[in-house]
Write a structure and sequence with these properties.
The chain has about 525 residues and is mainly α. The chain has one domain. It is built from 19 helices and no strands. It holds the Pfam family MurJ. It comes from Microbacterium schleiferi. This is Murein biosynthesis integral membrane protein MurJ.
Length: about 525
């Protein structure tokens, strides 16, 4: 646990600071453009997510799933993998430049693809934002490519800490927007080219700074890259074969996301839509990023090494240990966020009523948080064995469910359409996990479910009363009319109070039950505090 623990703690500390500053960034953005019922906010959200959607194909589709195992294997080459990585980096940079150029030119088509139900004025504003935002793709890609190579070389810190610089730049820029133009500016007809340039230009500048910061730490990898356009002879054909299935998997996921975005564009300006969904996802991703990505990233490198060496029993042990430790954190995180759904949503809304409406979206997402956690580990095992075809199959089913449920959500009352989309997403993840587990058991004959399923059940049994006590704190505060929903600040304070009380109950129950994972979790938290 020592090396894994230290690396996980470093990543968790950076991720926590990054997420907290990201929260502040979103709070300032809401103050600038609004949230529930704001057509301007939804226009910016759709435009700013376009480079993220394209980046997902590169990051999730190629880097995490394919590049890390390949770099681990290339490390055994006589030159330590330098030639391979130089060729890979050159190829990736060329692909990024070309893709970014095409995406920027096609900005109006991309906005139409994701939000055809926008009003003409809202569509024009989203397109103007998109011209400024899509160039982020180049720097997202460079950041991801450099970061995954560093992760494969066991240099984890810079990849996690660099986004903090992005958030600081964005906070400053969005704050300048409010100081100059006031806020929130929710009407699309009130926007001028200068306002568009300041808001969207700030978002892009933050991504540029994030990539530049990572480049500064590149020397720590011990690699010296040079442009190399001779892309034959180092297994790039194998990468293409592996990436083919993963590329299709991510494309299928993007198609499902397009359907969701189109449905939300129908209710934009009238009810929770794209901006509310994005902020609810930010809350959902806070524990997932701090715990799952930090611990899971380091375990994934270890999984790749064990799988490459054919040590299946070690892989099974990695699966069990990581799921048990992640489950300890994620079960209580689900309970806390559910109990604090309204005050937590108040952080990203301008009114108490808006927080109540937005909380339903968060609650719907939370149903899938624990299944998503287990799926993260299960999916990475397939990638560690260089199997990208199987994840495509169970993701195809998941995407189909997402699209069907998103279309069905249009039959719900307008106020609950986005929540219905989120619920469909969670249900799809549950089905995806069931399929993934079945496929993995066929591959490894057994995956040690009995090693981790009872632990998850025990954690859930402790989290239920903890969540109920946390909910009681919210009710005692006055619930939907109490002090916790008076402002964004009180929403944050109320959420923290609920979290502290629920966590104390949870830890107390687990301590009485002498759960062994509690000691490991405490060591992780102590390292996190000492790092900070």
């Amino acid at each position: 646990m020592s090396s894994i623990g230290r690396a996980s703690t470093l990543i968790a500390a950076g991720t926590l600071v990054s997420r907290l500053t990201g929260f502040l960034r979103s709070v300032v953005l809401v103050a600038a453009v609004g949230a529930v019922g704001s057509r301007a906010a939804d226009a910016f959200t759709v435009a700013n997510q376009l480079p993220n959607n394209l980046y997902a194909i590169i990051s999730t589709g190629l880097l995490t799933a394919v590049v890390v195992p390949q770099i681990v294997q290339a490390a055994s080459h006589a030159d330590g993998g330098r030639a391979f990585i130089s060729k890979l980096f050159t190829l990736g940079t060329v692909a990024l430049v070309v893709t970014t150029a095409i995406g920027t030119i096609a900005a109006p088509l991309l906005v139409q693809l994701y939000a055809s139900q926008f009003t003409p004025e809202q569509f024009a504003l989203a397109t103007a934002f998109a011209y400024w935002c899509i160039p982020q793709l180049l720097f997202y890609g460079l950041y991801a490519l450099l970061g995954e190579i560093l992760n494969a070389r066991r240099v984890y810190g810079p990849f996690t800490w660099a986004p903090i610089a992005n958030n600081i730049v964005s906070i400053a820029g969005f704050g300048a927007f409010i100081a100059i133009f006031g806020g929130p500016v929710t009407e699309v007809t009130d926007w001028t080219p200068t306002m568009i340039a300041l808001l969207a230009g700030t978002a892009t500048l933050g991504i540029v700074v994030q990539a530049v910061v990572l480049m500064v730490f590149w020397v720590r990898s011990g690699l010296h890259l040079r442009p190399d356009f001779a892309w034959r002879g180092v297994g790039l054909r194998n990468i293409g074969r592996l990436a083919g299935w993963t590329f299709l998997m991510v494309v299928v996921g993007q198609i499902a996301g397009i359907v969701q975005s189109q449905v939300m564009s129908v209710v934009s300006g009238e009810a929770p839509a794209a901006t509310v969904a994005a902020n609810a996802w930010l809350l959902y991703m806070l524990p997932f990023s701090v715990f799952v990505l930090s611990i899971g990233t380091t375990y994934f490198t270890q999984l790749s090494e064990h799988a490459a060496a054919g040590r299946d029993e070690d892989v099974r042990a990695d699966i069990a240990r990581s799921i048990r430790l992640l489950g300890l954190f994620m079960v209580i995180s689900t309970a806390v966020l559910a109990a604090a759904a309204v005050p937590a949503s108040r952080i990203f809304t301008t009114t108490a009523d808006g927080a109540v409406d937005a909380s339903w979206v968060l609650l719907a997402f939370l149903i899938g948080l624990i299944p998503q956690t287990v799926l993260f580990i299960i999916g990475r095992v397939f990638y560690a064995y260089n199997d990208t075809r199987t994840p495509f199959l169970f993701t195809l089913v998941q995407a189909g469910i997402v699209m069907i449920t998103a279309a069905l959500a249009l039959n719900l009352p307008t106020a609950f359409v986005t929540a219905g989309i989120a619920l469909g997403q969670s249900l799809a993840v549950c089905v995806q996990l069931a399929l993934a587990t079945w496929f993995l058991r066929r591959r490894l004959s057994r995956i040690g479910i009995r090693r981790w399923m009872p632990s998850l059940a025990l954690f859930a049994a402790a989290a239920v009363p903890a969540g109920i006590v946390g909910w009681g704190v919210y009710l005692l505060s006055g619930a939907d009319t109490g002090w916790m929903v008076e402002s964004q600040l009180t929403g944050a304070l109320g959420s923290a109070l609920i979290g502290i009380v629920a966590l104390a109950v949870y830890v107390g129950i687990l301590a009485l039950l002498r759960v062994p994972e509690l000691a490991t979790a405490w060591q992780t938290v102590r390292r996190l505090i000492s790092r900070r």
